[in-house]
C-alpha cells in the first residue's frame, strides 16, 4: 500500500519525531512542498514540488519552528517567521535561543529560513 501509516499523518506525532530526532542527532530529514500554482509559489516564497533540508528544530513559548535549507536560494519564504516578519521575531529570547539575527537574514539570503510547523503542515 502507498498510504503512509496513520502515525505519520498525525501532525503532533510528526512534530515529536522531528523534535526528538534532531535533538539527539540521530536523523537526517527533508520536507517536500506539494504542487503549487505560480500565484501560490509567489505568495508563499516556496517552490512547487521542491524538497528542503531540515537543519534545526526548535520550540519556544509554543512556537514550533524548523530551519530549512533551499539549495536553490532563488525563492524566499514569505510567511510567519520569514526575515520580513518583524512581529514573529519580536521576542529577544526566541532570537537568542535560535541564534537568529534578523538584519543579517533580511539582507543576506543563503537559502536558509525559519518556518513555523503549522505553516509547514498546511
UniProtKB/TrEMBL annotation:
Xref: SUPFAM superfamilies: Cysteine proteinases (SSF54001)
InterPro entries: PalB/RIM13 (IPR051297), Papain-like_cys_pep_sf (IPR038765), Peptidase_C2_calpain_cat (IPR001300)
GO biological process, one term: proteolysis
Keywords per UniProt: Hydrolase, Protease, Thiol protease
KW Hydrolase (keyword) present: yes
Residue span, Calpain catalytic domain: 36-122
One Pfam family linked to the record: Peptidase_C2
Gene Ontology MF annotations: calcium-dependent cysteine-type endopeptidase activity
Gene3D superfamilies attached to this UniProt entry: Cysteine proteinases
Keyword Protease among record annotations: yes
PANTHER family reported for this sequence: CALPAIN-7
Protein name per UniProt: Calpain catalytic domain-containing protein
Species of the source: Perkinsus olseni
